[in-house]
Design a protein that fits this description.
Helix 2 packs across helix 3 (about 50-60) and helix 2 crosses helix 5 (about 80-105). The chain is about 75% helix and about 0% strand. It has one domain (about 25-105). The protein is built from five helices and no strands.
Length: about 100
């Protein structure tokens, strides 16, 4: 009887324990890929009828990133401005290169 009681108590304690979700890690390169895709989708919407949140959802889906990870990365970059500037410079270079390629085409 004591054995069953102790097993029962263990089961109850385990069921009450909080299972912590792993922390969402920032993904800076993918964050800027999503942002670039969002910009491209916004520019291609010549009618300006598509809601920006729909465009953002599309960009997130294209790069397989969920909104929570995007927001986590944004918060991380806001708290680390030197990382933001470094990543933004790379993003800006990439954007300028794409624009130059489009001008050639």
């Amino acid at each position: 009887m004591m054995r069953y009681l102790s097993i029962f108590l263990c089961v109850i304690l385990l069921s009450c324990a909080k299972i912590e979700e792993p922390a969402i890690q920032p993904d800076i390169p993918r964050f800027f890929q999503v942002y670039l895709t969002f910009i491209e989708l916004s520019q291609s919407d010549s009618t300006v009828l598509i809601d920006k949140s729909v465009l953002m959802d599309s960009a997130l889906a294209i790069h397989n990133m969920d909104p929570a990870q995007f927001d986590t990365t944004l918060s991380y970059l806001e708290k680390n401005p030197e990382l933001f500037l470094q990543a933004f410079e790379q993003f800006d270079d990439s954007l300028r290169t794409r624009q130059q390629i489009r001008k050639i085409d």
